[in-house]
């Protein structure tokens, strides 16, 4: 969302009222959505009401519908569940219940409703919207509302946010709560892995997913599970014996660990449930919603706000609900291949990749190509997942695959080793770099590198790393005119917590880094739960402080890409002082380690401490390499796995294209590319074409997509008191000008 778009929205909601409710099962992230919808609504000048206990509160009315202010949603972003409650409501399924709900909304002038819940909750909202006109007519006939009231509130707008840990709603890549559910699953798998290896055991893990196998599928991908059961893809008859034979084969090759993951709704080809016990005996996972409501017209259908790549999109709610129902119908009718396709491209792609990597495939014929894989730059979580999937995909393609230890320096020294399928077993959940990585660039060792490329007859290089990885491959490409051995296929998988590699919106490892920073900030905030008037200044690594700031509800986030001066700092300190006069007497400020040459963390600490003396005190925290270490998140494990597969398949295709007369000769710009996620799609960008888009002095792309989130961060952290508040008499002590008072967290 562009900054100018948010600026234009200010006061666009004046005179409107928005209600927000959560319904169905709770999911982590619902509170963050409630907070964003509430603060975005207030930002645009609308009145916002929190509806407690879901549709039940909507039907009962009274104290269940309360006006919200900025502080109503303070300090909730890190909490699980939903602070406004959620309840199943049979009454809302009846005409009488919906009539009562309509009356209760009209008492507050609410004609915009944001519903956070599953497909059942969103379907109910659409029924409510479709009946709104007739419900108002009935209320007029009963004398409960006037004709003028009915005309004034003639249309109900609906925006849905899907909250479901099962990720079972078609039309979105990921629903609210799914990522947290995946984190919990991976924590369990990581915890039992050491025990399983010690005792040479097979663990059968059942995860939620009665009608959708997403959690089980992605968990299997992220853990390298040996066997997977999901309702969309039942096993063939006789799977028991086949599974046991497969597990036995892995044990005979030296594996001490087997993991079987089963979705709770797993079935066989005949529709019979497959339980974890049976398997054991056989084998011994809000802001766009407000915009949608503001822009809605009487003819606008109810929408659901979905995620596509890193973009928020709006889709017709009932079309998505219908597709979701079609999936279940296809499974009931045993059309399992179609069910997988209906789940969407992401699900189908995950399933194909799992089948490719779970068990060794014997290539029909050996290819003529040899490929080498190396890590370059600082370690980043997910590197090992990318290496593992690339190795196994290369072997499946019939190639000879080498790994190189210690980056370009290791390639120069001949630290090259042929690798087999089972050599990379267990690498998925490992942090750092199993191959070793260094920042050394190739230009100082070109002769030695060329010699070893010739010695090992290497036809392609897969380089996984940060800015140095891209810069290193660029140096190799620019040296092709001097060395024919460098006329080979090359690909870069961006992997760095700094997220500064040109050619991609997301670098491998940045999600783990943001999560590490977020968890640390949450702990820092919790440590001050018994302390009033305290401000924490936290220094972070990498270029992703804005995203972290939004995730933790920071009051400010200072980054290099968004220049600031002493006047900005002065304004922030004044805002913090005003904040401490409210009920929320804690502050959180993030500072990127390279945001400013002179405004250091120590400078900010001294400034805030001095100007806030007598009002609040300060503490500093430096996260440092904490953001690099640790096990990769489910996203980085899955993302690394996908990038490794796609990169290797792309390189294989390129090799076949440039193989002529018994040799590989690749010198076209598109023979050396960066693979990356660009908005909604994975794309390959020639390294040479990315030079014009790169700021070499500061080691980053000239344009950063996440800078568009800066105003969102400021908007969610700072309270703009609108004229509507003044006119309503709720803030009589405020002058007639719009104030900007910091009430973050």
From TrEMBL:
Translocase found in the keyword field: no
Any one GO cellular component localisation term in the record: 6-phosphofructokinase complex
Cofactor(s) demanded: Mg(2+)
Biological processes annotated in GO: canonical glycolysis; fructose 1,6-bisphosphate metabolic process; fructose 6-phosphate metabolic process
Pathway: Carbohydrate degradation; glycolysis; D-glyceraldehyde 3-phosphate and glycerone phosphate from D-glucose: step 3/4
SUPFAM superfamilies, per the entry: Phosphofructokinase (SSF53784)
EC number(s) recorded for this UniProt protein: 2.7.1.11
Name of one Pfam family that matches: PFK
PANTHER family noted in UniProt: ATP-DEPENDENT 6-PHOSPHOFRUCTOKINASE, LIVER TYPE, PHOSPHOFRUCTOKINASE
Identification of the protein by name: 6-phosphofructokinase
Organism placement in taxonomy: Eukaryota, Metazoa, Chordata, Craniata, Vertebrata
